[in-house]
Amino acid sequence: MRIYFEGPLFVIFFAMGVMFIWIKFRKERIRFFFLSSFFLYICLLIKYTQFPITLFLGNSFKQNIDEIINVVPFINLHRSPINYILNIFMTVPFGIIFPFIKKVNSKEKILWSLLVPLVIEGLQLIQFILTSYSERIVDINDILMNTFGIWIGYYLYRVLVLFVENYSKINKDIKRSSLVNFIIHHNKR
């Protein structure tokens, strides 16, 4: 039996989360926008990194742990370069959106850029331990690529903030939108 996180399950889970965010932040529309966007990103991240979950009922199928774990960095990078590129792109949105939700200093950036990939791969490992089967490989290279992707996102966030700040300085006679104000002032908190 396979469990998927899509269709009605995905929509219901996402809608409930957005309703909760709306109840808490309905007066802060821009904050609501960033929180909802981040929640959608997290839902998609869960969908593509943790599902489907396969359960073998009755006749159990078991994998060996060495079939699904790679702890040697940079081994077999040539086998599936597109997979590693996708692992980078998958976490770039985290690095861009997260600083709009929570101001993070350098130490926190390091912590979050390591924690997120470790949680993703750790949950895949826990899934294997609980079911004796995984459709995913717990791979140190995925952790490295995800971390790199988050750092690219942090960099793109900084570029966006600098662009908005410079744009608002050059165009002083143009009334700043609430989004521009949020980006500039959120960054300075």
TrEMBL record:
Residue intervals passing through the bilayer: 6-25, 32-51, 82-101, 110-131, 143-164
Keyword Transmembrane helix: yes
Keywords: Membrane, Transmembrane, Transmembrane helix
Domain VanZ-like span(s) in chain numbering: 38-160
InterPro entries given in the database record: Teicoplanin_resist-assoc, VanZ-like
Pfam families hit by this protein: VanZ
Descriptive protein name: Antibiotic resistance protein VanZ
Organism this protein belongs to: Anoxybacillus flavithermus
Lineage: Bacteria, Bacillati, Bacillota, Bacilli, Bacillales
